[in-house]
Design brief:
By secondary structure, the protein is mainly α. It has helices at about 5-20, 25-40, 45-55, 60-70, 75-110. The protein starts with 5 loop residues before the first helix and ends with a helix. The mean pLDDT is about 75.
């Protein structure tokens, strides 16, 4: 494989994800990181990393990768809607954690 062919890295990552179902597998992420290293303006590679990380419940890291994709391609409606969905999920988890911690502290004090 030509080490400068970023599309080949991206395609291998996609094939590996689909065949194995391990979307945040270190091999997949490494392939996508190689693609980004070769072509830092490849927003689709960042988006694919974000998608894999999201499926592996690594939401904060997924949001970071998605924001890179949006920085490169700010008008991409798919990226924007994905960011909104991730932000809502992260906020809901933060609020749930906050309520749980508040209840735990209150119950302990009583």
């Amino acid at each position: 494989m030509n080490p400068t062919a970023e599309a080949a890295y991206g395609n291998l990552a996609s094939l590996y994800q689909e065949s194995d179902g391990k979307f945040a597998d270190p091999i997949v992420l490494s392939l996508l990181e190689n693609a980004v290293r070769i072509n830092p303006s490849g927003s689709l590679f960042y988006y694919n990393m974000a998608s894999g990380l999201r499926r592996a419940d690594r939401y904060t890291t997924a949001l970071s990768k998605l924001r890179y994709a949006l920085k490169i391609d700010p008008l991409n409606k798919v990226y924007v809607s994905e960011e909104v969905a991730l932000l809502i999920w992260v906020l809901s988890q933060t609020l749930t954690l906050s309520v749980t911690l508040t209840l735990s502290v209150t119950l302990t004090l009583i």
